[in-house]
Structure formats: C-alpha cells, structure tokens
Amino acid sequence: MTQTPIRLTVNGRIHDIAAARETPLLYVLRNDLALNGPKYGCGLGECGTCTVLIDGSAARSCVIPISGCVGRDIVTLEGLGTRDRPDPVQQAFIDEQASQCGYCLNGMIMTTKALLAINPRPTEQEALAALRYNLCRCGTHVEILRAVMRASGQLTEAAD
Amino acid sequence: MASPVSNGAERHSGSLIVVRTVDECTSETFVRITADGSVSAYNGHVDLGTGIRTALGQIVAEELDVSFARVVVVLGDTAVVPNQGATIASETIQITAVPLRKAAAQARHFLIARAAERLELPAAELSVEDGLVRGHNRSVSYGELIGGETISLELADDVDVKPVGDYAIVGQSVPRVDLPAKATGELTFVHDIRVPGMLHGRVVRPPYAGVDAGPFVGTSLIAVDESSVRDIPGLVAVVHIGDFVGLVAEREENAIRAAAQLEVSWKPTPTLPDLADVETALRANPSTPRTLIDKGDVNAAIAGAAKPIQRTYVWPYQMHASIGPSCAVADFQHGNIRVWSGTQNPHLLRSDLALLIERPESEIEVIRLEAAGCYGRNCADDVTADALLLSRAVGRPVRVQLSREQEHAWEPKGTAQLIDVNGGLNADGGVAGYDLATRYPSNAAPTLALLLTGRISPEPAVLQMGDRTAIPPYDYDHMRVVAHDMPPIVRASWFRGVSALPNTFAHESYIDELATEAGVDPIEYRLRYLKDQRAVDLVHAVAERAGWTPRPVRQDKDGEVVHGRGFAYALYVHSKFPGYGAAWSAWIADVAVNKTTGDVSVTRVVAGQDSGLMINPDGVRHQIQGNVIQSTSRALMEEVSFERGAVAAREWGAYPIIPFPDVPKIDVLMLPRPDQPPLGVGESASVPSAAAIANAIFDATGVRFREPPFTPERILRGLHGDAAAAPQALAAPAAAPPSRIWQNPFAKRSGIFATIAAVCTAAIGIGAALLPGRAIGPIARPDASVYSAATIARGQQLAALGNCAECHTTIGGVLNAGGRALETPFGTIYSTNITPDVETGIGAWSYPAFERAMRDGLHRDGRQLYPAFPYTHFSKTSDADLQALYAYLMAQPAVRATQPANTLAFPFNLRALLAGWNALFHQTREFKPDPAKSELWNRGAYLVEGLGHCSACHSPRNALGAEQREAYLAGGFAEGWEAPSLTSLSHAPIPWSKAELYTYLRTGQSRYHGVAAGPMAPIVRDLAALPDQDIRAMAVYLDSFNDTPTNGQTPDALAAKLESATQVTVAASTGARLYQGACAVCHEVGGLPLFGSRPSLALNSNLHSTTSDNLVQVILHGIAEPASGDLGYMPAFKNSMSDAQVEELVTFLRQQFAPDKPAWTGVKETIARVRSSIH
Q1: Residue B144 has what pLDDT?
Q2: How far apart, in whole angstroms, are the C-alpha atoms of residue B762 and residue B915?
Q3: Where in this chain does the record put each Cytochrome c domain (chain B) (predicted)?
Q4: Which end of chain A has fewer CB atoms surrounding its CB within 10 Å, N or C?
Q5: Residues A74 and A99 occupy one common structural domain
Q6: What total of structural domains would you count in chain A?
Q7: Top-confidence residue, A3 or B554
Q8: What's the ipTM?
C-alpha cells in the first residue's frame, strides 16, 4: 500500500484521495466524495448497481481499484443532472416511473447512458441485451425499457 | 406532495393535531397541520419501495382537501410515528391507512366547523380548495383557523369520510414523490447515511450459514486471533460476543479487508438436515396438525371417488434477494441511542434492540430510511443490531454493511413448502373431495444478533403462517385442510405471497388436472366451484382480455418448440387465520417450451386484478407488473442451493433472478371498483403465477410439473425421464497428463531423492572446474555518476526486460530490496537485495563480481546461487548490456534490507551440489547470432533467450529443475500457473501469429487468446520499457517456433466461427447459471462494452489447455493487477463460490467453450490446491 494520494477526476472535478491504491472506486466515491448514486450491490461486478461511466463506458466501480482510474474521466449519477435540472435519461426514467425501491436505478440510468452514447436509437432487443446484466428485483423492467426508449426519442408519450 | 426532507415535526405558532392516546403518558399523532398551512401525515408502516408514501399522501390530501403537494408523509421513525406493527401482508392501504384517513377527515370536519363559525355561514355552504375554505366570496385558510392555538383532537372512530364520488385526488394516477430524488442520487437511502465521526464495521458470520436453530447457534466460536488483522490500517476494534464477531475500522475498505483476513476458529458444525431432497426433509420435520376446515365427509367422499387422484407439490427454498445487501448505522450514546435502519418494523426492532443491549426502549430511537426492496423479511433488522453492538463497543457511530455473500447466506429464506392433496373425481366429472395438508417450516426469524450473542434461546419458535390461502377458493362439498405447523429447518421468514403462493400452486395445479381428467375447459371447470361474484367477474374479464379459447381437451402440439396457455386464480388471504383477502388476482400465462433444450419462456401474461378502490392506479399497475415479473422469476429459475445443510448460494450466479430479455410481455387488467374499499396490492398478483405457468407448460407438453423452479433440467427430466437430463458424456479420450515438472517434479516418483543425490554426486567430479567459488573482494560502492544517464536508462530498460524487480521486490515492498518468497519444488528461496547497499545489497560488488553472478551463478563471496536466479539465461547477455544493467543497479538508492534464510529440503540445501547441476545443465556462453536468420529474428532471440528468460517458465523442467532443452518453449509451470507452450504444441484454438504475439506483449491482450494474467501480467508491464522494435523482434523470434497451419482461414473468420458455435443460449446446469450470473457480463461476445477488455472465452488459450490451473487461478483469485489498467480488472470469486460451485463452473466452461477438447480431470484437486496457495 502506498500513502501517495491518488488523483481522480469525478464529475469534472479533481480530487486527491488518500486511500490505498487497490481500494475499489465505489468506496472512494461513496465515502470520500459523499456520492450516493453508485450503490454497493455485490462487490463482484454482477448486478450493476455500482455502475459509473469511466471515459464514457459503463464501469462497475465495485471491482475497479482507484489506481486504475487515474487520468480517466469518471462520471456518476450526480454528474448527469440534478432534481432541478435532470439529464434527459434521468428525466425519461422519472417520466416513466421506472423505479420502485430505486436501488438498482443508478445502474439502469448509467448503463442506458453508456448504451445511448454508442447506439442512440437502440431497438428494444438491443436495449434488453444492454441491460441484461443489470439486475432489478422489484420487477420494474417494463417501465425501465420504456424509459430507455423514451430517452432515445423513440417513445414520445406514455401509452395506455 | 412534498418530498420528505426532515422527520422532525417543526412547530410554528399554532398547530392542529389528531392523536390517539395510548396510555397516560403516550399518544400517537396521525395528522399535524401547522399555522403555515403545511400538513404532515404519520403512518407506522414504511415504504418498501412500493410507493406507499405517495398513496398515503393522496389519501390525506383528499380527506383534508389540500393539494397533494402540501402533504409530507412521515414513515418509520419510532420517535414520531404511531406503532402500527410490521409492514407486512399488504396491509398498509387496507388497514393502517384507515386511522390516517379518519384523522384527516376529522381534522377537515373540525376546521370546516370552525370556518363556519368564523365566516358566519352554514357549513354546508362552504367549499374547500387546497386548505382554503370559501363561502359567499369570503374565505379563510386552515392556517388562519388554527392561528396561534395548539389544538389536539382525539382520533374518533365514527368519522364521516368523503364519499368516493367526491374524490379528486384519490383514484388519480400520481407520479411517485420519491423518484426524482432517486433518479439523481439525491435521496438518502439507509446505505447513504453519514453521521459525524462515523466508523465502518463488518461482521464475520459463523460457518453454519443460514441456520438459526440448534444448540450450536451462539456457542460455536473457539477463538478470534486479533493478531491476524494487526496490519490493517485504522483498525479500531475487534468485537466478539458468543458467535457474534465484528470489527470496526476508520475506512470501509479496510474493514472489508480485515473481515476477510481475520482468523476465526469455529467448532465443527454438527450434521444438518440434507436439503438436497426438500420433500424428505419437510416430512421428517416435527409438526403439529391444525385443522383449518373440515367440511362434509372427506374420507368417505374420497373413498367413493370414481377416479382418486393423489398429488404432492414441492416448493423450493427461495430468497428475497434484495438488490442491496442490508446496511445500518448505530450511534450508541448513554441514554440516547439512535439507529438508522431499513427495517420493515421499526417498533418491533426497537424491542429487539432493547433486549439485546439491556437498555429501556425509551432510550432507543429507530429511524427508518429507504432501503433496497425487501419483499418480506431480509437482513435489515440483523444488520441494525450488528451496528448497535459495534457502536456500543467503540462508543462512536458505526455503519455496518453486510456483504452480498452474507445477505444471500443469512437472509431468512422464503421457506420450502410441501403440500399433499388427496381427492379425485366422481363419475360425473365433479370433484369428489379435497384433502390438503400443507407444511411450512418458517417463523419470524429472530434478529440474528440475539441468537448469536446468546441473548435468546436458539430453540426455534413455531409460527402459524402456513395457512395463508390454504383453504381453496372453490366450494368443494367435501373438503379438509390441515396446516402442519412446524419450526424452520433453515432460517426462514415471510416472503411475498407467504404460504399463499405455494398453497395456490397446489390448488390451481390440482383443479387444472381435475378439469383435464373431466374433459372440461379449465376455466369453465373452476367457475363451477367459484361462488364469489367478484372472483367470477374477474375470471371472465381476464379470459375475455386474453382471448381464451375454451379447450375441454388438450391438443397435442408438434415441433421442437411447443406453445401452451395456462390459467390460475387466487384471492390472497393474509393476517391471522382466518384472515382476510387482499386484491383478487387471475393470470393467463402463455409459454413456449423447447423440448430439446428444456428451456421455458413465459411469453405473455395477462394479469387481472380487482383491488377495490385504487388510490393511485399507476402505482397499482406498477405493483402488478412487479409481482408478475418477480413471481415469474421465482417459478422459472429460483431455488436456494445447500451444501451439507448450509446455504451455498452466495452470489447471483448461484441464485439467478430473471434478466431483462426473459421478462414476459405483460397485459395488466385492472377492474374498476371505485365503490369498494381499497385493498392491498403488494402481493396479490404474485399468487397465481407458478400455477398458471405450470398449467401452460402442461398445455404445451402434456406433462404436469409439480415442483418449481421449471429449469431446463427439470423440464427435460419431466419430458424424457432421468436419462435425458444426465450430462452428456464427452467421447474424446483423456489427454496424456501434462508435464508438471517444475511444479511438482516428484509426484509419483519413488526413490527420487536417492537418484538426485547420485546424479549430483557424480556430477561434482565433472563440475570440479567450477567449484573454486573464490570470493571476489569487496569494493567501495561505485559512484553512479561515472555512468552516463543514457547508460543508466538503458540499464533500466534491461532490468525491465529481465523482470528483475518482479522477484527481487516483495509485494508492496521497496523496489529491488529482495525478500520475496519464491516457492520452488525444492523449498522456499528468498530473493536477495540487489540495491547498492554495501552490507545487505550489492553495493560492494565490483563489475566482475556482478558479471560472474549473471553468467556463472556465483555470489560475490563464491557461494553458488540457486538456479531460481536464471543465470543460465542471463549468461547470454552481451557485455555492453551487462555493464548498463550494472550501472542502473548501482545508481539506485541503496536500501538496507536482509532477507530471511532459505528453507530448502535436503539435498537442495547443499549449495555445493549446484556445481554439479551447473556442469550438467549450464553453459556459460554469450549469445551468438545465427547468420542464416534475419537481424530482427536474432535480436528477438537475444532478448527472449537472454535477459527475457521466457523459457524459464515456458519450457518444461526435468527432475532437477533444469529446462528440458529438447522441449524448448513447449510449456511449463511457474508460481502455480501454467506457462503455455509458445510453439506448435500450443493448445490455442487460433494459432499465434507475429502480429498477435506483438499485440499481446505490447498491450497484455490478444483478441484471439486472452489477457496476460498471473505472473505474465507484471512481465508485460515491465516490457513497456522496451521500444516497439524490440517487442517486434521478440514476436518474430517466438513466431518462428509456431508453424501450425491455419487451413486458409483468417483469424477473424475462425474466431467468428468458434464464438458463434459456443454461444450460451440456455442455462441448463448449475455451471451454466454460474457463468451467466458471474462471468457473462464481461465475457459474453457482443455484450455492451464495459470499461476494460472483454476476453472471449471461446478463444481463450486457458480454456483449451490440457490443465485447468490458469482458469481456476483467475476464477478464485481474479486479476487485481492487470498488465495495464486499460484491460480492466477481474474480481476474485474465492469468497463467493464454494469448491463445488467452482468445479461446476470450470467443467461447464470447458465443455461449452472448448467443446473439441476432452473434459479436464482432477479439477477438484486443482481447486483445492489453488485455493490454498499463497496469493
């Protein structure tokens, strides 16, 4: 372990973190930077609740040490938007009521963000495949899928 | 509605409250209106993610005639909310909202009466809009009516609530108030609570995973070795009480590390009931029969049945499977104890905590914050008690987060259930009789810390909860239902639908079977016995919506994929027997069954529900959809696995839940019943699920399945019998055992030591010339300034090529200061200090001494160096390069460090024998280029054979640890990893090429082979110091050993072929499910790009090798230090998967991704060996 601070760029701001280099990014985001978006779900990269964007790609922050994040651009849910000024993906999830308990929501939104960055108008099949490894236990899948389609401009008004 | 910001009820100048007096000194507030017009509503239940907060706000706004936005709903803080028991049984809207609604109505009546007085108008002529009372162009607000007064109304029973026809807010769909904050990370979940001075705790659970009854519970701890975590920075305390073990650290990651590292010894757990066969285990569990109904003469009716039918239904153990493992914060201060918890039942938890720490309840405040959905009892209470014990121990606030593994293992399971139905048909096709016995081994799951610390007895309580919907909804003439109340076998408690879901699975499967036997359409048959009009209406509505075609006789279906449709109906009856009904629910499920793979897809569900008045119709719809999806998941794929009676599933691969692509299309039908009381909707739609799906599978296949989950294996067994479901044996013959010389040269060799001794002794004579081993005199430490910066830089590059630092540096230690333990088959050798420290390093070494060490393997003092130091390779290095290397080493900072003594077995501890070894195996010879080869090839050969010393790992070794010259680069073993063959003997499915060798050595990854891991990762990292041209030279040289024909296929074409042939489409084994849950997210071909690489398993050399070692290494230990951060990281699964699970996974991966290769042998032994190796 080293005590040399590790420099991270999170949501556009630079932070010097005094933690061991192997510390998973998730704990630094949550405990050092007080960011609540990324959540601990499994610690194994299986469930997706801890997802952040690293250099624009979806990244499971529970299995990535901070030493691997130096010089990279990290964006969390908080970096997308706020309650007053939500990002279009966040707004689409709110509009579609695409959450129940909300614990997986961070991962769903961040993964959608990463998907739309490389595929702005995914088909439903593509959206389902992209979210295949983000787990939701409340059974909000239907609303989440609609939110993805809405965020990609393919669903302009709620059905029913 | 305003979103909840503060739980404190702020006091303005005046207020109106509606309270219920509990006793002389306690009263509970339901509604508070303050002079500024704000409204707070207090409910004892909590929002488990279902949107209750929003619905309760609607109810209060409606009855008070204020805007929805004005109401703040306060839930779950024991200091301010009424005690209304646990949030279970879908009771909130149906039961606990009733006093709240009345309180709001009562406040409105009071305020209107006061307004009538103030405005001097009859109450009947007044109207209210958002708290403003109007009449005849005059108005007064609620706030003005309250003014500076403190008004307290005692909650009355006989309050007139609004007629439904007047509703403006209730019955309208309202967006959830919590979602904007949740979608932006602004909501504070219990996981997000931060208290000043807060520390981080972790617990270590006992080995009897998920078992909470028996004399060993709380009494199994032998010892905790605190010295095992002494090196953890910021460790504050290690706490153990009985079997409760926890620790506290300043930082969370250090608490995690400490929990993993803490050495705890436990007594062996006694033999536990075998849960591989749930039916037998439940029959053997002691029980007390409780007759719920006994109508007509059941025995006679069944005895007289024309066609007796006796069936058994088995429900598996399932998990609540909260996405977020439970978390809590506790702050223990004398007389003022606060906990922040995700509990379902703040008041009951407070009693448990008081009992645990022997303090009065009045000193404890439980503040409930939102948590991950729980669908019943998860570990939320357990972790709160854990946090309290740790906070008490350290006197500071402590946050405890359970690990995924702990939540999986210890959450009280949704219990297995066994239901026997005896009955049959009369000659006219009517139901002769119905005799049902249900076994439900579950209780309320006492808070774990109470058991672990011995505060309460580990004698399991028996709870009467097996009776939910145990009485069928059908009016059979002769009917008996008996609940066999029994204690839990493993820790179990209520889970969505509780016993009603399994009981309904039995009712609805059985009646479907009767209908088939009677030759009557299954819906029509049910309607003959269904007397409840609302149920009948619902069944008709759902049948119409789905376009149900009556089918008195099932039609056989052709084809590989067969389709079917099934119906089921249920009224979820909850609370203490006889209880009452929540919403009515009916399903029509469509399935597609692949008869070859056994895969079942639920393609569409029409879910109909009569929920009475719907407070928030959108909220009801979301609940129905959520129930449909979750219960489909439960029916198709969910089952807890056990090993030796303890819970084995500790991550999502071992306990899969439904992924997006498997979610059915859902058509929700909500019957409008605005005139009927509102009913709970949190669980009802789950209840018909499994039966509807089983009935659809029967329609598709003609086979009844009476035991969920309907996994491919189970379907295949049902369709084709046991033989078909047996794993396909691979025909290919077992390969010859791989050469494992370096790792274990003495395996199965008798008398080997004698042979070695003889060989060495003989060799001593031959090697005499090398023996003198004279010392070379010490020198003063050379002045590094005599070397040019360019020379030093070049030396640094050469040190990287030789990976000097890799062996000569301990993990986390000072560069090149030595001391790293190198495990060899001959014993442990500690690397030496090669910094220029005069006494402990090489500071006193002259260049000739250094050169002699590099070329002849002799220490400056004349001692033989062990060939773990690859001087046999280094001897090939040119003088110029050795001088540069010497310059670099001497220019480093000197570090004083001595290494431990080697621990070598006889005869290897006799250094003199090494002279013989050298005589046999070592040639001191500088590299000589081969004029017949290109310059690049020769450069590559120099780098690879010399300082690069690739063959030190990649060549097999003989019994004496020397490389086998005739098998140069043919593959070897090092540090527990296989170093694969770099020649044509490579097992890689796509032959290596110059380009791929270059890419691999340069980036640590080849698209066609995989990433560098284990000892190869640091080598690639070191090679980064070398120019591209040198890497290219190495690739050219190595490629010259590889002449595997490519059959004219491009690597891309071959890769595409291999990848498409090995796609995982059906998860039909434990191994396949582990792969899908744990591996596929990063390894599936074509998945969403994630940070890091996406190594393709179909092409991965390790999966095609003759040994499983490297695969087992990465699964157990992960890749924490890749060759480059760009490659991403792989987590270690050693603490999340059992040996048996890893074996299943490894076996599956081999079979799936290297189908042309024979199954690996000895996988179990490899796992045991790799798990126990130092890492």
Answers
A1: 95
A2: 11
A3: 790-893, 935-1042, 1066-1153
A4: C
A5: no
A6: 2
A7: B554
A8: 0.97
Q: What confidence score (pLDDT) does residue A159 get?
A: 45
Position B1 scores a pLDDT of 56
pLDDT tens digit sequence for B705-750: 999 999 999 999 999 987 654 444 333 434 444 433 334 333 343 4
- pLDDT computed for residue A157 by the predictor: 55
Contact B438, B483 (CB under 8 A): yes
pLDDT at site B10: 45
Residue in B3, B47, B176, B184 to test binding to A, most A beta-carbons within 10 Å:
B184
Neighbours of B312 (CB within 10 A): 15
Residue B851 CB contacts under 8 Å (≥ 6 apart), including other chains: B879, B882, B886
* A19, A125, A139 member nearest B253 (Cβ): A19
Mean pLDDT of B495-516: 98
Q: Which one of A50, A100, A132 would you mutate to disrupt binding with B, by most B Cβ within 10 Å of its Cβ?
A: A100
| Tokens matching residue B208 | 């009897």
By residue range, what is the domain housing residue A105?
A: 88-151
Write the CATH number for B383.
3.30.365.10
**Same structural domain for residues A11 and A75?**
yes
Query: Do B1024 and B895 share a structural domain?
Result: no
CB contact A21 to B (< 8 Å): no
Chain B hits for A148, Cβ within 8 Å: none
The pTM assigned to this predicted structure is 0.93
Q: Give domain status of residue A159, yes or no.
A: no
Least confident of B7-16, B82-91, B1079-1088: B7-16
- Put simply, the answer to whether A58 touches B191 (Cβ < 8 Å) is no
Asked whether the beta carbons of residue A142 and residue B186 sit closer than 8 angstroms, the reply is: no
Chain position carrying tokens 């929540």: B582
Q: Are residues A62 and A101 in the same domain?
A: no
Nearest CA in chain B to A66: B1125
Tell me the pLDDT tens digit for each residue of B913-945. 777 777 778 777 789 999 999 999 999 999 999
Q: Which residue has the higher pLDDT, B629 or B1043?
A: B629
Structural domain including B27 reads 15-181
| Integer angstrom CA distances of residue B1175 from A21, A62, B261, B389, B581 | 18, 21, 13, 33, 57
Our CA-based measurement puts residue B812 at a distance from the nearest CA of chain A, in whole angstroms, of: 6
Total CB pairs under 8 A between chain A and B: 240
B186-190, B474-478, B485-489, B927-931, range with the lowest pLDDT: B927-931
Nearest one of B639, B647, B565 to B606, comparing CA atoms: B565
- The reply to whether A157 falls in a domain is no
Domain harbouring B1032, CATH code: 1.10.760.10
Task: Identify whether B991 is preceded by a cis peptide bond (ω within 30 of 0).
Answer: no
Mean pLDDT of B1073-1091: 96
By C-alpha distance, the chain B residue nearest A61 is: B1091
Instruction: Give the three-class secondary structure for B895.
Output: coil
> Does the beta carbon of A105 lie under 8 angstroms from any beta carbon of chain B?
yes
Domain boundary among B890, B921, B952: B921
pLDDT in tens, A75-85: 999 999 999 99
Q: Are residues A66 and A108 in the same domain?
A: no
The answer to whether the Cβ–Cβ distance between A46 and B652 falls below 8 Å is yes
Dist CA B880 CA B50 (whole Å): 74
Contact across the interface for A81 and B185, Cβ inside 8 Å: no
Per-residue HEC secondary structure of B554-613 comes to CCCCCCCEEEEEEEEEEEEEECCCCCEEEEEEEEEEEEEEECCCCCEEEEEEEEEEECCC
CATH assignment of the domain containing A51: 3.10.20.30
B1128 and A139 within 8 Å at the Cβ level: the answer is no
CB contact (8 A) between residue B1091 and residue A129: no
Average pLDDT, stretch B51-80? 95
Contacts of B1154 (CB under 8 A, 6+ apart): B989, B1103, B1104
Residue A152's SS3 state is: coil
| CB spacing of B404 vs A103 below 8 angstroms | no
Same domain, B147 and B236: no
* Residue B664 and residue B545 share a domain: yes
pLDDT on residue B813 = 86
